[in-house]
């Protein structure tokens, strides 16, 4: 219906029931201008949907005691312990309570993929509120906040952590934080909707240029799990199916971990949720809705 109505160029829908793929539907075209139809293997930019899978990988480290939730971030990442962030904990990062929620600026699109430069800017940031006192979505910063913690805790590059804690255990072959060369032809092209405002020239940081950012090959091939996940609907759904109570043999996390991670808790200065589906509601890494 969305494609027929012109609301979407192309889309996929996937549903798992009791661990088995029950729905795998596709419609429309890939947006690349050649009329190619979307199929089950078309890869779509799914933006912050990637925050869920990288959270799962990180919580596997927590389960094994590699990193503790109440450890200060500065103990692992000394450069971060400045400008009022000295008492920030790992738990605060997962809860979106670090206060580092203003989108990190960049000088060029390609610079977003410069891990060390962006991490340094995040580490030097001044929080907009005392860490732990409020909840505010950490947007793109989640890439570096959680990703650098994973690297410091394990001593391994983030792509290797994701290989070991996510792709391998979940059997994911079509969910990427960094699309390899051979798979790039499968990536759908982002097309700006005709009903959206025109992009200013030059476009301001992030607000208007998301299509340009996500169509950039450098970004498509970087590991930026706060915003650049590229996946099929099947693999994204498969990841979540492996967290459900119905899964017994190939669980990614213990049931008690999932329950704790999906429990809403409010910070001292949080207002009551406006609705049950408010985007600002978080557990440990996952957005909690309904």
Keywords:
about 10% strand; globular; alpha+beta
The major β-sheet equals: 3 strands, antiparallel
Q: Approximately how much beta-strand content do the residues carry?
A: 5-15%
CA-to-CA gap between the ends?
25 Å
Overall average pLDDT = 93
Uncertain parts = none
What does this entry look like structurally?
The model has no long low-confidence stretch (mean pLDDT 93). It is built from ten helices and five strands. The longest helix is centred in the N-terminal third of the chain and has 13 residues, at 51-63. By secondary structure, it is an alpha+beta fold. A hairpin with a 2-residue loop joins strand 1 (10-17) and strand 2. It has helices spanning 51-63, 73-76, 90-94, 115-124, 142-154, 158-170, 210-214, 217-220, 233-241, 255-261; strands at 10-17, 20-28, 44-47, 175-176, 229-231. Strands 3-5-4 form a three-stranded antiparallel beta sheet, with helices on one face. A two-stranded antiparallel ribbon has the order 1-2.
Strands, helices and their partners?
Blueprint: E1 10-17, E2 20-28, E3 44-47, H1 51-63, H2 73-76, H3 90-94, H4 115-124, H5 142-154, H6 158-170, E4 175-176, H7 210-214, H8 217-220, E5 229-231, H9 233-241, H10 255-261
């Amino acid at each position: 219906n969305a494609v027929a109505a012109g609301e979407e160029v192309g889309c996929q829908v996937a549903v798992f029931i009791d661990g088995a793929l029950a729905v795998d539907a596709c419609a429309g075209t890939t947006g690349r201008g050649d009329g190619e139809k979307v199929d089950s293997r078309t890869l779509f930019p799914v933006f912050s949907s990637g925050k869920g899978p990288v959270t799962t990988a990180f919580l596997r480290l927590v389960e094994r005691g590699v990193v503790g939730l109440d450890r200060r971030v500065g103990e692992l990442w000394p450069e971060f312990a400045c400008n009022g962030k000295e008492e920030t904990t790992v738990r605060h990062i997962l809860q979106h309570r670090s206060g580092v929620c203003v989108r990190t600026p960049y000088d060029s699109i390609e610079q977003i993929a410069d891990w060390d430069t962006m991490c340094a800017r995040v580490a030097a940031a001044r929080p907009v509120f005392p860490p732990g006192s409020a909840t505010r979505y950490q947007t793109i910063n989640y890439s570096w906040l959680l990703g650098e913690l994973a690297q410091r805790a394990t001593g391994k590059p983030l792509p290797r952590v994701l290989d070991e804690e996510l792709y391998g255990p979940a059997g994911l072959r079509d969910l990427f934080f960094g699309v390899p060369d051979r798979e790039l032809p499968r990536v759908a092209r982002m097309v700006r909707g005709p009903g959206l405002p025109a992009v200013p020239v030059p476009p301001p940081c992030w607000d208007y240029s998301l299509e340009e950012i996500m169509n950039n090959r450098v970004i498509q091939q970087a590991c930026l799990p706060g915003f650049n996940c590229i996946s099929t609907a099947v693999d994204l759904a498969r990841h979540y199916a492996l967290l459900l109570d119905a899964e017994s043999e190939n669980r990614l996390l213990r049931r008690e971990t999932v329950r704790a991670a999906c429990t809403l808790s409010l910070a001292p200065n949080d207002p009551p949720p406006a609705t049950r589906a408010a985007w600002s509601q978080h557990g440990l890494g996952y957005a909690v809705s309904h």
